[in-house]
C-alpha cells in the first residue's frame, strides 16, 4: 500500500471510530435502518459471489433508474451493482442482478472482489474504491460524470486529491462541455462528452389511472418545507376554479408528517383529503401518495407538475424528463444545479421562487405543455466500456 493510501486508510479508521456512537444511533432511524448497518457494519452485506464481471456503482434512486437502458444492452454480462441509499438499493434489485450496499471505505480492501470493469455514475468519487479496484486489475470508467457549478470551487480547492483519485480512471464520460472543463481543471484525462444518459432511458407508466374531470396538479419529489409552499399556493389557486392537488414526497419516511401537514390545510380551508393507500380514485381535493414507484403514473394524469427539490438550496432539483414526457406543464424552483444538464433539453419550464408558485400556476393556463427535445444513443458507449 502506497504511503498516501495507507494514511488515507488510517484516517478512515479513525473517523469510523469517532463516528461509531452516531452510526449506532442512526441505525435505529427509519431512513437508515437498512443502509447504515449494511454499509458500516457489513450486516447482510456479503461480498459479491463472483469476480470478473461489470460492477456498477450508483448513489440513489435516480442513478439506479438510469442504469436500465445500459443493462438492457449488456444482457449476457455478469452484472453487479452497489448503491448508497435504501431507495437506490430497492430500485437496483429490480434488475435481478447481485446488489449490495457499498461498504464504508475502510472495509473495501477486504470486501471488494476483482472485476473486469468498475463503472461509477455521476459524482460518486470514493478514493479507496478506485484505488482498491485498480490494484485488483479492474478498469475504471466514470459514466454520466458531473461536477456542478455550485461544487466546482470545492473540487478545485482539493484538486491535488482528485488528481490522485482520477489517475486510476481509464475514461470519463461527462454530461456536458462545462463538466469536461471542470474535470480537466482537477487533473482528469481522456474525457468525452456524451450528454446525460438519463435521456436514453425509456419513460413508462406501470398502471393506468382514470384522470379526474378537473385540472390536476402534482407536487412531485417534494422535500421538507416544499409541501407547505405548494399548499399555500394551491388554496389560493382554487379560488379561481376547481382543481385537485396530488402530493408525492421524495422520501417515504416523510409520508406521515406530510399527511399531518395536509390535514391542517384540509381542516382550515374545508377541503377533502385522502391517502393513496386508501383508494386510487383521486376523488378528494388533496391526495397524499404514500407509495413508492407511482410518480410516473401520477404524471400521466396530471396537467401541472410542481417539481420539488429546487425550492431550497440544499437538494439541487430532480429529473424533469418524466413530467415533460407525460405533457405536464412544469413549475420548479431556481436551485436545480444538479439537474442543469437535463433541464437544457426540456422546454416551457417556469423557474420560480417559492412565493411565486401561485403566480406560475395562473400563468400556466396560457402556456403549452413542457416538452423534451433530445435523446442519446448509448450503444457506442457500451461498446467502448466492454473494450476498456
From TrEMBL:
Transmembrane segments: 6-28
Pfam families given in the database record: Glycos_transf_N
GO biological process: lipid A biosynthetic process; lipopolysaccharide core region biosynthetic process
EC number: 2.4.99.12
Presence of keyword GTP-binding: no
UniProt domain 3-deoxy-D-manno-octulosonic-acid transferase N-terminal: residue ranges: 36-199
Pathway: Bacterial outer membrane biogenesis; LPS core biosynthesis
Compartment(s): Cell membrane
Catalytic activity: lipid IVA (E. coli) + CMP-3-deoxy-beta-D-manno-octulosonate = alpha-Kdo-(2->6)-lipid IVA (E. coli) + CMP + H(+)
Site (described: Transition state stabilizer): 122, 198
Gene Ontology molecular function: Kdo transferase activity
GO cellular component, one term: plasma membrane
Catalytic residues of the enzyme: 63 (proton acceptor)
Keyword Coiled coil in annotation: no
Keywords: Cell membrane, Glycosyltransferase, Lipopolysaccharide biosynthesis, Membrane, Transferase, Transmembrane, Transmembrane helix
Main location: membrane
NCBIfam families assigned: PRK05749.1-5
Family indicated by similarity: Belongs to the glycosyltransferase group 1 family.
Job of this protein: Involved in lipopolysaccharide (LPS) biosynthesis. Catalyzes the transfer of 3-deoxy-D-manno-octulosonate (Kdo) residue(s) from CMP-Kdo to lipid IV(A), the tetraacyldisaccharide-1,4'-bisphosphate precursor of lipid A.
Record-given protein name: 3-deoxy-D-manno-octulosonic acid transferase
Native source organism of the sequence: Candidatus Sulfurimonas marisnigri
Classification lineage: Bacteria, Pseudomonadati, Campylobacterota, Epsilonproteobacteria, Campylobacterales
GN (gene name): waaA
